[in-house]
Write a structure and sequence with these properties.
The complex is a heterodimer of chains A (about 80) and B (about 550).
Chain A lengths: L11 H12 L4 H19 L2 H28 L1
Chain B lengths: L5 E3 L5 E3 L15 E8 L3 H12 L4 E4 L13 E3 H9 L3 H7 L1 E3 L1 E6 L2 E7 L11 E3 L2 H13 L4 E4 L3 E7 L4 E7 L2 E12 L6 H5 L5 E15 L8 E5 L8 E7 L3 E8 L5 H4 L2 H12 L5 E14 L4 E2 L2 E3 L5 E2 L7 H21 L6 H27 L4 H14 L3 H6 L37 E3 L5 E3 H7 L4 E6 L11 E6 L10 H5 L7 E4 L5 E5 L4 H11 L4
Parallel strand pairs in B: 3-4, 3-13, 4-10, 7-15, 13-20, 24-25
Antiparallel strand pairs in B: 1-2, 5-9, 6-9, 7-8, 11-12, 12-13, 14-17, 14-18, 15-16, 16-17, 18-21, 19-20, 22-23, 24-26, 26-27
The chains are: A mainly alpha (about 80), B alpha+beta (about 550).
Chain lengths: ~80, ~550
């Protein structure tokens, strides 16, 4: 794994907060624009395609698991 | 011309006469058999025929039309293509007529976003690109063909049937005088994106069709724009879409405008509908149309470029979107790659399996070209609202960041591929630069015996269509295998006082590069020995 998943911030709450505050007051459209720019800026800063791909995999795996859980819940209902 | 009477119209387009050939009168006495038949007299087929003829092969070149194609079509010819054409004896004529360029500019709205230089260093014989209407390139190639008696160029010869036999192929050919049949050890299909030979071998042509429509117009006007490639995202004169402007010879300008996906292709092609669009772009109405076409992109390739004894090259084998000049140039790279291999196989100095390396190397290149051109197309015509959002983000980041500029994709222009190939001998010494095995040779200026400046590509062309060894000489005589031409630098013949060549090749005394007949590096050595060179040669010729 090239991607660092152990906590990297001394105060993770500050990082979370910084992103939240950046989006505060924005509509969905503007928020999506902001996220798109953040993704590209941070991806370039990382500058490592393997890390980027692992990050994408992690993000997608999480979405897959969420949608599977949702399906299972619907089947149980 | 030996190829028959040609007539050239005012726009440089040439029509050729049909001539009956003796092969058509052989009924009863067995059909004529030739080493190679090339089908399709476009830039790829013509160049391949010339290359083969210069190597001593007799070539029959068939074309179903009686004229060189209408419209400018391909216009950007790369440095690599020009270096190949130099070896075919037509490079200078192309450059003399063509518009030399190397700078591209990308605009967003009305403002310049960034610019790129495709050949920022001096000391290359050929420029990064020339723009030249395809019909000029074809006309010059036809003139060169007419100087080579080994080529039998037959217009109005349409291939209608193909039978593969154990050791040859039989073609049925339709002519104005009726049908005839000829046999060939090998057939090379250079018959374009709608290749009939591809259908005859039953091969699929799979890939992606893009829904966006592009209007392409060549307009004649006098204008003061520089000889640069200008590309716009969302220009004021064509809101929300992309546009391209590029100069050709004869005061002709290539204009490309992206249209709506659902634009009516018949209506959009009418000059009265095209004119206002172009006038908005140019800010005036003082131009004439040379050619108008409407097209959708396709990016696709054959799974295999070899089908028995039929070899596919150019658009017949692979098709890309036009932004990036990867169509004609990759076809010419196919021809360059195939010529020497086919010659060696026909002479039996290499086994038939050498042709497999054509498929491997050139299908890698096709994949690379398709990948690059698909990415450009997706950037220009985003497929989803998210893709559109990300593109908008890149364009806005490009205003103030270098990384954003480099992500803007208005077409990535053709560069030769670096082949991952079994013909290469893997480096096992320390190299800090220079073209690695599988890469095309890099040009550099050197000095000839009477103090004149020559280029490495000239020295390579003079070396005579063989494997060549570029050696940075160290006093002692080289013990060379036969069949290898020597390009010695640092002795009486060539010198490199300025050190350009040594720097581009990361060379020290004794360093040597073994170059294939197509100008690609096969192996390189810090301390060449006859044994090591022979081993690399065997490998590069497909003999081990």
């Amino acid at each position: 794994m090239a991607l660092v998943t152990r906590s990297n911030f001394e105060k993770p709450d500050d990082a979370f907060r910084a992103v939240i505050e950046a989006h505060r007051g924005l509509g969905d459209e503007a928020s999506a624009d902001l996220d798109a720019a953040l993704v590209l800026i941070l991806a370039n800063h990382i500058g490592d395609l393997d890390v980027l791909r692992e990050a994408i995999d992690l993000a997608k795996r999480r979405m897959l698991e969420a949608s599977q859980q949702q399906q299972q819940q619907q089947q149980q209902q | 011309m030996s190829q028959g009477n040609s007539q050239t119209d005012t726009r440089g387009r040439t029509r050729f006469g049909y001539h009956r050939h003796a092969d058509q009168d052989r009924a009863g006495s067995g059909i004529a058999t030739h080493p190679v038949v090339v089908v399709g007299a476009g830039p790829v087929g013509l160049s391949l025929a010339i290359d083969l003829a210069q190597r001593g092969q007799a070539v029959v070149l068939l074309d179903d039309a009686d004229r060189i194609g209408e419209g400018s079509r391909a216009i950007c010819f790369s440095k690599r293509s020009l270096e190949f054409w130099d070896r075919l004896g037509v490079g200078q004529r192309m450059v003399d007529k063509g518009v030399v360029w190397q700078v591209g500019k990308i605009f967003h709205g009305a403002s310049l976003l960034y610019q790129f230089d495709l050949l920022p260093e001096q000391g290359h014989k050929r420029p990064a690109f020339i723009n030249l209407q395809q019909f000029y390139a074809e006309a010059y190639l036809v003139d060169r063909v007419s100087e080579l008696p080994a080529i039998s160029l037959r217009w109005c010869n349409k291939v209608t049937g193909l039978e593969q036999r154990n050791d040859h192929v039989v073609l049925s050919v339709e002519t104005p005088d009726g049908p005839y049949r000829i046999a060939a050890s090998y057939v090379v299909a250079c018959d374009g994106a709608r290749s009939t030979l591809r259908q005859m071998v039953g091969a699929e042509f799979a890939g992606q069709v893009f829904e966006d429509q592009f209007l392409i117009a060549d307009v004649k006007m006098t204008a003061e724009f520089p000889t640069e490639r200008w590309f716009w995202f969302d220009p004021p004169f064509h809101a929300g879409r992309s546009a391209l402007l590029h100069k050709q010879p004869d005061d002709v300008w290539r204009i490309d405008l992206q249209l709506d996906r659902n634009a009516d292709p018949v209506a959009e092609k009418q000059p009265e509908n095209v004119r206002p669009r172009i006038a908005r772009m140019l800010g005036h109405d003082h131009f004439d149309f040379e050619w108008i076409s409407l097209y959708k992109f396709q990016c696709r390739r054959m799974a295999r470029f070899l089908h028995g004894r039929v070899v596919f090259a150019g658009d017949a084998a692979h098709q890309v979107s036009p932004f990036g000049a990867r169509g004609a140039n990759s076809g010419l790279e196919d021809a360059e790659n195939l010529g020497w291999k086919l010659d060696r196989v026909l002479r039996k100095t290499s086994p038939e399996t050498l042709l497999e390396s054509y498929h491997i190397e050139r299908s890698q290149a096709a994949d690379e070209n398709i990948r690059e051109s698909t990415r450009s197309t997706d950037f220009m015509a985003p497929n989803s609202s998210y893709e559109a959002r990300l593109r908008k983000t890149v364009l806005s980041l490009a205003k103030e960041t270098e990384f954003g500029k480099r992500m803007v994709n208005g077409g990535r222009l053709s560069v030769p591929s670096i082949y991952q190939t079994s013909l290469s001998t893997v480096d096992n010494e320390d190299w800090r630069g220079g073209p690695r095995p599988g890469a095309s040779m890099v040009d550099a200026p050197i000095t000839g015996s009477i103090g004149e400046t020559v280029y490495l590509t000239d020295a390579f062309a003079k070396a005579g269509r063989r494997f060549a060894l570029l050696v940075f000489v160290n006093g002692g005589a080289m013990d060379l295998p036969d069949d290898v031409a020597l390009i010695p630098v640092g002795g009486a013949e060539f010198s490199d006082a300025a050190g350009h060549l040594a720097s581009r090749y990361d060379a020290r005394a004794e360093t040597a590069y073994l170059v294939r007949p197509d100008g690609y590096v096969a192996a390189r050595f810090r301390h060449p020995t006859r044994g090591a060179i022979e081993a690399a040669l065997l490998r590069a010729a497909g003999n081990i």
